Description:
Elements: H1 53-56, H2 60-79, H3 85-95, H4 103-115, H5 118-122, H6 124-158, H7 168-176, H8 178-213, H9 221-242, H10 244-270, H11 275-279, H12 287-294, H13 304-311, H14 331-360, H15 369-373, H16 397-401, H17 405-436, H18 457-471, H19 476-503, H20 518-541, H21 543-547
Helix pairs in contact: 4-10, 4-14, 4-17, 6-13, 6-14, 6-19, 6-20, 7-8, 7-19, 8-9, 8-17, 8-18, 8-19, 9-10, 9-17, 9-18, 10-17, 12-14, 17-18, 19-20
Amino acid sequence: xxxxxxxxxxxxxxxxxxxxxxxxxxxxxxLPHMDHYRNxxxxxKAIKARPTMLQLHGEHNHVVHxxxxxxxxxxxxxxGAVQTKEDxxxxxxxxxxxxxxxxxxxxxxxxxxxxWGVMLFLRLSWVVGQAGLGLAACIILLxxxxxxxxxxxxxxxxxxxxVKGGGAYYMIxxxxxxxxxxxxxxxxxxxxAVAVAMYVVGFSETVRDILQANDxxxxxxxxxxxxxxxxxxxxxxxxxxxxMEWEARAQIVLLVILLVAVTNFVVGTxxxxxxxxxxxxxVGYQGDVFLKNFGPDFRDGESFFSVFAIFFPAxxxxxxxxNISGDLRDAQKAIPKGTLLAxxxxxxxYIFIAWLVGSCVERDATGNVLDALAVxxxxxxxxxxxxxxxxxxxFQVMELxxxxxxxxxAGIFAATLSSALASLVSxxxxxxxxxxxxxxxxxxxxxxxxxxxGEPFRSxxxxxxIAVACILIAELNAIAxxxxxxxxxxxxxINYSCFDASFVQSPGWRPAFKYYSQWVSLTCVLTFxxxxxxxxxxxxxxxxxxxxxPSGSV
Length: 554
């Protein structure tokens, strides 16, 4: 008979991992514990520390809430509590997200409205008059090239991981670190707030000119711009505070008005001219006019680079969709598709309109009807008088050529108001993202969000105050050069982010978007730095302000 077996004690360890996120498998081994890590207290100490992976992907709060719900569920079960249908419905309603936008409404429409800004109606004809049709097309294509490269870099960054609210700030801070991202986020949010003032002042000056033409000024030229500007930005603030859904609807209405105004101009070029319009330079399509306007005719100290510097703000709208990345349904697909298509469409339209206006309008015209009726016609002879009309002298050429002039004013209003509204929405969201990361002290007050979408109402008020302060300057030419440098530096850091992540071959750099080059991004960085320095030199030399006020402008 064999001796009895000694008693064996078997222990089975079971871990409840159903409410914890692992790498896709519920393991029976013990999970890593936070106590085993050296940086346990880094989240509570006043020192700089890299965020955890959960924090980077926005899952930290989600896991905490899951654990809390699991604990609450256990307590309810122990107490015999039963969830009612009302409780389930309340939790379902609370989990519903705010309205999200697709790539057309969220990115394409916003980018088009920002790119087709005041430049399309008030500066493009002047660019053709100075640079000629050939170099004007080169200027437009050069702006399209640098913005396309920036968009490719931005597409690579935004497809490297989940893109949340904060737009360019979020992408740069997660690629280069919070120091780079925080600096550019603060600059970019202020730039958007100041841009609101620039667009509103452009709108206010146009309204002021209409009032002045009808002898209906309220106070005087400067104070009328301030009064109209403050009233306008209050209305825009109200639209922004209502919510993103209403703001997006307003953007679509403004885009329709803008497209109608552009169509009105194209139709007007085919309408036979009359002596009054002919005396102001509009002669219809003529081969000799096309040949005369093809070459450059730089005046008043202008050059290719100074004209390009003045036109470049038209390219600052490529981040309009990325700035609301937190409100996009699928930011990784929407941002590349919508931004690149917007650049393609806007570039084609800019070149098309430039060639149309350069084929039917003279560079100089006296505006005297008798000169147009004389035989031979001498309305382009400026030897004995000062020409105040034509491509080189008048900003309102598109209104002159259009089939119905008031529609052009409607297009100007749509372009300025849509750009102002987009900037007024972008600035608070970027600043809210910076405040939430607590990179800078004393700004956590602006991190609070309201409603299902977490709308940054406090940041809205801050952007409103900055915009009103700049509107009181009431001088468009004093605001525009400052904004150009802000946006140039933002584009520079986006390209550098892409280059840096690719060059060091970071293990975490695996973008789904493959159509980019690190060396092309580096070239764009150097180009933007050169353009930024050029703008500073031109501004200090007084070239930019004097160039933007021809004698015949309204």
